[in-house]
Amino acid sequence: MQYDPIKKIFGDAARNKPWLRILFYKLLGIAFLREWYVKSELRRQLSQRKEPFTVYDAGSGFGQYSYFIAKQFPLATIYSIDLKEEQIADCNQFFRTIGLVRCSFAVEDLMQIQHKEKFDVILSVDVMEHIPDDVKVFQNFYRALKKNGQLFINTPSNLGGSDVHSQDDHSFVEEHARNGYSVEEIRNKLEAAGFHAETIRYTYGHWGTAAWRLGIKFPLLLLHASKGFFILLPLYYLIVLPLVLPMMWLDYSTDNKTGTGLNVVAKKA
Fold first, then answer.
1. What's the order of all strands across the beta sheet hosting 119-125?
2. Are 36 and 64 in contact (CB under 8 A)?
3. CATH (residue range 4-268)
4. Angle at 88 between CA 54 and CA 132, to 5 degrees
5. Quick one: what percent of the chain has pLDDT higher than 70?
6. pLDDT of 78
7. The model's pTM
8. C-beta separation of 220 from 4 below 8 A
9. How confident is the model at residue 233 (pLDDT cuts 50, 70, 90)?
10. Which of 46, 125, 184, 185 could bond 154 through an S-S bridge, CB–CB 3.0 to 4.6 Å?
């Protein structure tokens, strides 16, 4: 399934309506377990910073993580990038409209960036699985960070990420360049680029994967089959959220020994 056309439906609906975009961000924060994990790690790490710091949101998408950081951490200045010009234009307009001037957006290709010792923090959520030459991007991230800078990565694991469980399975998201990383692979690639991998944590264990299928995969498949299902989404979630949210909480509260996702924190020495 191609994910970008589905994302465009939501992006178009929220365009030029700041209140609707903020509501969309809040709904993403509720419905996507990945946001629970990423935001929890950001709170844990960024709350320790007592001086102004710079964040590079490397693959900002709808801009929800840039918005979260800008609202939660007034010492942060965020520079957010993506390949999609339309999304960047939408984000720039939205953030200017609501007055979050500490956050700016630009079109950049992570394979081509030349930033050098510019950022204190780099955030990469659901990006690396789309890039064939991930080693090059890790090297670019290392160069872009200041000394002791931190890199936060969220990406699928090789233990069922993209709903791939055998060699015969196909990735749920066609745009993915890889199905997921093993802990050893991503650690080795980061360390080869110069990073020290501080923590690598499994996300989306048993309960999280079940919640993802019911709360994300099935409705996306229905939207892919017919855009008319968009009208029925509120009713669908009214029915399934009472089931999905407890499952998400169980996963979030568990020290998963395995899982279909990885949360990674690495540091530049």
1. 103-107, 76-82, 53-58, 119-125, 145-156, 261-268, 195-203
2. no
3. 3.40.50.150
4. 80
5. 89
6. 98
7. 0.91
8. no
9. confident
10. 125
- Residue extents of the structural domains in the chain: 4-268
Q: What is the dihedral of CA 264, 113, 88, 150, to 10 degrees?
A: 30
DSSP the chain: --SHHHHHHHHHHHTT-HHHHHHHHHHHHHH-HHHHHHHHHHHHHHTT--S-EEEEEET-TTSHHHHHHHHH-TTEEEEEEES-HHHHHHHHHHHHHHT-TTEEEEE--TTT----S-EEEEEEES-GGG-S-HHHHHHHHHHHEEEEEEEEEEEEBTTTGGG--STT---SSTT-SSS-B-HHHHHHHHHHTTEEEEEEEEES-HHHHHHHIIIIIHHHHHHHH-GGGGGGHHHHHHHHHHHHHHHHHHHHTS--SS-SEEEEEEEE-
Q: How many residues does the chain have?
A: 269
Q: What is the pLDDT of residues 88-110, one digit of tens each?
A: 999 999 999 999 999 999 999 99
